[in-house]
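Sample pair:
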Amino acid sequence: MISLRDHQAPVWAIWGLVAVFGAIEAVAWFVAGGIPTRPVVLVQVVSAWIVMLILASLATRRIGSMAQRIRVQEHTHEATLGEIEQLQTQNAMLEIIARSVDVTLAFQALASRIARIVPCDRVGLALLTENGQEFQTYTARVHEDERRTRPRPEVVFRVEQTLLGNVVRSREALIVPDVAEVAVDFLDANILHTSGFGSAMIVPLVSKGRVVGTLNLVQRGTHGYRPEHAAAIQPIAEIFAVAVIAQQLQISLGKYRSMEAMSDLTLSIATEINSALQTIIGHCDLLERNYPDPNLQRDLSTVVRQAQRIVVLLDKMRAAASERMREVEAAVAVTQSGIPSSPEAFGPDAKTEL
């Protein structure tokens, strides 16, 4: 990268040469006994200096305009590099999520890439629990190798009296210039302060009308983040939100399918048992007709009553299993319709509900 001093060096060189030429000419005049008095020589000298100053001024302006264009190109280049890094991070995230729906694994693998987009000393992920009352937090290192093969929840925070909870309720990114100023009022800020971090940025994970957590970046120095940092990390947070929603939907779909299989098995077993009971009841009726012994008939009547009781219980079981299967089918249909085909399927302007 070319610095401002590099841009100014040719300008100083041009005017330095003009100054050196003037000094040499002054010394020559001094040795010759003073400024030439002949009009022709004087006009030539003045004309030469005017042309020299004009050329120096034009060269200075030209260099200044070129330096300005170079600075613009540098800024454009830096912005392009930032966009490329962001796209590479998003692509890597999608590849990891495609291989595994475990969001925490993707978070740990992408922590160092996130640090290339926005400067940070530690990256954190806070995910809301199913009841929406607590956060499970995960952290990942960005400047050294991660020793853990699998992330695990480190601290559980309640939504109340935390910066995380405020971000979830507001659905807007929060920049904390100095963590020490809010450490007294918020538990998570207090933990950051005692851990030696000076500034933080918390970005909500919002997708399809739901807040599922936050993406957290911290630095040890104060005043480390600006609004443009939040704008740069927002696309990454959106992809994380899509991944969290997809993971939750897939887990729910697995549960529903397990319930469906259990209900189907219950119906099948109930049908088999009912068939065996009907056979038992039929044979008892035949025995009761062919053998008029009162004791035998009393025992057979007891067997038939108990078998009929089991038949009634099986009918109730089949009815309950059928009702459960209808509920599961409806739930699976809703869940499958909620799984997005692409990140664009999630509306960014939807209202968030806890």
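The chain has a mean pLDDT of 78.
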